[in-house]
Every structure is written in C-alpha cells, then in structure tokens.
Amino acid sequence: MGTEVMKSSLLSYVRYVKKNIYKSPEPEREYQIPTGAINDVMKEAFSGDGSKTALDHLQMIEERCSLFKLSGISQEEVKRKLFYLSLSGDARIWFKSLKKADRLNWEMVKKAFYIKYYSPLKAYNDRCHIYNFYPHPGESITQASSLGETEGAPQKESFTWLI
C-alpha cells in the first residue's frame, strides 16, 4: 500500500511539472531585406521639401515591397522598415514623433504621412477635379472614368478618402 501512495504522488508531481514546465519561446526567424531594395529607397529619399509628392513616395514603397517576399516577416513590416529608411530630414523627424502604436501599423503610417505631406493646394485642385467630373453626352461613367487615367491625372483609388 505504501508503494501505491508513492506511485500516485510521483505521478501527480510529474503531471504538475509537465503543466508548469517553462517552454522556451520559438526563436525568431532571421530575414534580410534585399540590399538593392534598401539602396533604391534610400536614393529616392523623401525629405518633405516638395520635390516629390507623398503619393509618389508611397507608391514607390509599395512597388519595391511587391518585388519580394520574406519568410518570418509580414509585408506590412517590410513596408514600414523600408519606409523609415526612405525618409530624410524633416520627414524622418516627423516619423519619429509619431506614437509608437501608430508607427507599428502600416495603414496608420500611410494615412498620417499622406495627411502631413499632401499640400492643401493639391488637395483643393484634386477635389475640384473630382467634384467637376461628369461624363460627356452618350458616354457611360465607366468610359469617362477610364479616360481620366492618363499621365498626371489623379488616380481614382487615391481619392476615396476625400469623398
């Protein structure tokens, strides 16, 4: 009978240890953003001086990130990292001034950047373009909207937040 007691207490101890044993976290996967992509975005740095538009810069980041995929890191995180590397001067200072929680979300970074560096005059001109849009007689909305997709014309998806 004494061995039965010892056996049951040993089993309960083993169960306790198995439940409460420290599990080491999975090691982080290593990744490396291609140096060519890093060099490209750093060459085309955005400083906020008006030489480059916010929309063009965001599109450049999106295009560069669509060229490769890395295991162990999300595309959003790659975009954030490349975006930070692509900023210089006042734009980099602005990025560092964002709350950490906002810097961790790519969509929040995009919106904040766009609002900060999209000039009021450009916004006014684009709104005028959108509000004054109408199809010509005999033309459908689809046909009219596809004609506006020329070089220098505002892109439809760029202005959904304005409407």
Break the fold down into its secondary structure elements and pairings.
Blueprint: H1 2-20, H2 35-43, H3 54-66, H4 75-85, H5 89-97, H6 100-103, H7 106-117, H8 120-131, H9 141-147
Helix pairs in contact: 3-4
Notable traits:
163 residues; mainly alpha; 0% strand; single chain
What would your notes on this structure say?
By secondary structure, this protein is mainly alpha-helical. It has a domain of 86 residues. 59% of the residues lie in helices and 0% in strands. Helix 3 packs across helix 4. The longest helix is centred in the first third of the chain and has 19 residues. The protein is elongated and about 100 Å long. About 3% of the residues have low confidence.
Short description:
This protein has 163 residues and is mostly helical.
N- to C-terminal separation?
Answer: 81 Å
User: Helix amount, in percent?
Assistant: 55-70%
Rg calc: 27 Å
The number of strands is 0
Mean pLDDT: 78
